[in-house]
Amino acid sequence: MIGRRLVNGSETAGIAADDRGLQYGDGLFETMAATGGRIPRLPLHLARLEDGCRRLKFPMPPASLIEDECERVLEGMGTATVKLTITRGPGPRGYRPTADPSVTRIVVSSAARPRGDALEPAVLRICDTRMGLNPLLAGLKHLNRLEQVMACSEWDDPGIDEGLMLSSDGRLVCATAANVFLVEDGRLVTPAIRDCGVAGVMRQVVLAAAADIGLPVVVEDVQPDRLATADELFFTNAVVGIRPVQELVGVRRWAAGEITRKLMDCTA
Amino acid sequence: MIGRRLVNGSETAGIAADDRGLQYGDGLFETMAATGGRIPRLPLHLARLEDGCRRLKFPMPPASLIEDECERVLEGMGTATVKLTITRGPGPRGYRPTADPSVTRIVVSSAARPRGDALEPAVLRICDTRMGLNPLLAGLKHLNRLEQVMACSEWDDPGIDEGLMLSSDGRLVCATAANVFLVEDGRLVTPAIRDCGVAGVMRQVVLAAAADIGLPVVVEDVQPDRLATADELFFTNAVVGIRPVQELVGVRRWAAGEITRKLMDCTA
Lengths: 268, 268
Fold this sequence. Notes:
homodimer, alpha+beta, D-amino Acid Aminotransferase, Chain A, domain 1, D-amino Acid Aminotransferase, Chain A, domain 2, 2 domains, nine-stranded mixed sheet, four-stranded antiparallel sheet, 7 helices
């Protein structure tokens, strides 16, 4: 894939072997959609990153520096994806964070897949791998992602596009790399992200869009048996946007849904 | 600290920015005690690493290669610590593991702190940060360690040596970087590691030693209120060995314990 990479602003730098991002997954990332050299939702990503830095207690690099580096990796690219990773930086052995961290920045661009493909209604499965509960880390897009890695390694059928994940106590939380929304009796429902899962930027965009068009929204604990009776189902992430679901394997199939379509139109 | 580092056998190589160890914490590590250029418990560490590779589904580097690289980083060093990290290696964006991973090896030595200091009876606290439940990952020393990082960032009083951690459902599991043992009525008790926590190599050594000297051993779920009534308390890891506990802040203090001393003697 065509793209560019900057580590702390340098095209040639590598990552130190003692970077805490590598040692402990001690960092955060954002995966962002770009078009014509710009990242339309960059302010939302930066806001989530700032919240993450505050909660993990390390300093956020200046937003202007991040904006600059995103611009550099996007130079000359059309539709693209930018992955931004920041870590607590190099540190001695031992979990305790250093008092004065030197935060590492990694900005990588890659050409995006054609959007048309991604928008074909998806086929989902339910993963066996569940998500442990930790309110301190819930919502953050941090670098501790072994649960997602294990969930994605459960299937290799290319006909399956994504996998839904449950919490360790059996609630529906999200997909491996997306948030999930149900439509029930004309209301939009999405699982509360309070003790596990990632609170995606596109989830936030959809919740705001629903409020704008007067669609009732419910954010609450969702038991997975509600999937069988939902009128529509879709998932969201910052790269794909909204993707409708046509089938949850072994549970049910859906025709194209009107509310999903309406939300796609007003968030495109 | 004096020491040496090898990345995939090279003294000058860095880590690729797309290494899955950094992207997702997709890897494992071992921290090992060395003396006179040798790691006495290397076979136990390699066995745990092999189990971890099998469970995370990536190939273990040849043991002879690891042994070789440990020997190289220990050349000319006395009492030392070796940290061995292996990851699923570089990979494209996306959680799904690549079919044919090129595993990354990082071997780092550092001069050990004098053992005398480490053996002074420790002062512990109980951390607020809890551990989420995931049986698929429990026991492994994987690179998803944000819970330990958050737990260690809770205190900065240098008089406190370690913090005990509970599971999300309130059981005593381990310390941030150690396993924990209670002595109750002449029996040795340690929490079962079945849905969270690390199953340390030294924990295994102590359990075997206890069996050897005819000490009854119980591995089970342990509620934290048993700490207040335990006759002795100690923690273990591969670098420190066994370290007695003299105080759990706000709960109780202990005098030197006979069974702890006996186990220290026969595992030294």
